[in-house]
Amino acid sequence: MFRIARFKFSMVMAIVMAFASFGLASAQNPAYQTSLVTSVTYQNVGTESATVSFSFYNQKDGNAIQATRTLPAGAGDSLFVGGLTGTESLPEGFLGSAVLSSNQPVVATAVQIPSNSTTVKNRPLSNGFSSGASTVLLATVLKNKFNTTSTFSIQNADSEPINITVNIFNADDTSAAPIVLTETNIPAGAAKTYDMGKLGAVAANTFNGSATVTAVKTSDSSPANIVGSVLEFSTNAYAVKAFEGVTTGGQTIYMATALCDRFNPLQRTAYAVQNTSTSADANVTVTYSNGVVETATIGPGAKRSFIACSAPNAQTNFTGAATITSTGADIIVIGKAFFTNGSPAGFETAFLGEGAGSAKLALPYVRYASDAKYNDGTRQRTNIAIQNIGSSPVSGVTVQYLNKNGTVVGTHTLDTIDPGAKANSKP
């Protein structure tokens, strides 16, 4: 008997080519005015051929549009939702979510592709979820803060309609009461999207905060399952990035990449650390793999940013990793990597901190463009950071690169990785 794997993700800003608030971008428009179209990259990590079913739901619409594909064991493929035709085609202005179902284990990444823009080059990535929870934590939500505005989406990962409550906390005024939003009767599989730049409840011209979302079933108010994801758009330049919502926090979080003015052009990392508790402080310590340490106390529901180059005794020309611990309350962490002096093309990325590791990981989206395609911004390159979260050195870590048919086309054996440190790999 086959195990059916169900995989959920919110396609924030997917197929918004005619959506009124985000019209087609001209060559000079910033990222916040740029439309995105989703390509779903998915990989069969099972041992037999997979039949993968895609169910697409427009915002708060319980009627799914279906598509089905087959995929050999170990293989990967992409489904560009802007190119679907016939009964599979999605309507113009589609803004919604998707559920993947398969008779083999699959992993999937939503790749957001800028539409009709010659300036916005970055393709933000967010991973799908195999399950949900009744609470989702979003470590950063912004309104024109740091020249960035967030759009976030909450998807119903349950089997019946749900109601959600969104609490938005002000990081710059921790004494302020949270902003509370509610939405009722979201169908199973469907999502609700919020644009921080257009929320009337967020009256200030700029806002820096975090959000906690809870869900209950519409029928009886019992806890319901949800997942969430966030897109961050530059309001004056071309950067756009994505990250996933987190359902649980922890007191030890691992960050596989930490940078302080390293590489050319110079790059840095920043960590947004959110306290998941509504009542207790989180006493946070960030320990970088070069021995630099920074501490702070974060109030209930609040967040704080840690920038590698701003830590006491920070060392430039640093590339490594970090371990973040908390006493008191649990925390979640979002990492962001960016160019020190900004990038004309907006090349930035965001990633989740992890509370645990694994002996084996699968990455469905790996690319390595030619110099010409990479330098002109039309194609991407993948760089993989691998952190040793154990207490002793680890040797023999191998990275296998597979083509779309699942055939191994290259193997990289890494040097020994010290505890807390990282190693890098690229195709």
Residue share in helix: under 10%
Largest sheet: 8 strands, antiparallel
In DSSP terms, counting alpha (H) and pi (I) runs of 4 or more, how many helices?
Answer: 1
As a percent range, the share of strand residues is over 45%
Round the mean pLDDT to the nearest integer and report it. Answer: 89
Report the C-alpha radius of gyration, rounded: 21 Å
> pLDDT below 50 for ≥5 consecutive residues: which ranges?
1-28
- Bulk shape: globular
CATH architecture of the largest domain: Sandwich
Overall tally of domains: 2
Can you identify the CATH superfamily of the largest domain? TM1070-like
CATH topology-level name of the largest domain: Hypothetical Protein Tm1070, Chain: A
Q: Tell me the quaternary state.
A: single chain
Q: How many strands?
A: 28
Plain-language structure description:
This protein has one helix at residues 371-375, and strands at 5-11, 36-44, 50-58, 64-71, 76-80, 96-102, 106-114, 125-127, 135-143, 148-156, 162-170, 179-186, 191-195, 207-217, 226-234, 240-244, 252-262, 267-275, 282-288, 293-298, 303-307, 318-328, 331-339, 349-352, 384-387, 398-402, 408-413, 422-425. The chain contains one helix and 28 strands. The relative contact order is 0.15. The two termini are 37 Å apart. The protein is an all-beta fold and 427 residues long. β3 (50-58) and β4 (64-71) form a beta hairpin. The protein has two domains: 5-244, TM1070-like (Hypothetical Protein Tm1070, Chain: A), CATH 2.60.290; 252-425, Hypothetical Protein Tm1070, Chain: A (Sandwich). The chain is globular and about 60 Å long. The model is unreliable at 1-28 (pLDDT under 50). Strands 17, 18, 19, 20, 21, 22, 23 and 24 form an eight-stranded antiparallel sheet that branches. A four-stranded antiparallel sheet has the order 1-6-3-4, with no helix packed on it. It has a four-stranded antiparallel sheet with strand order 5-2-7-8, with no helix packed on it.
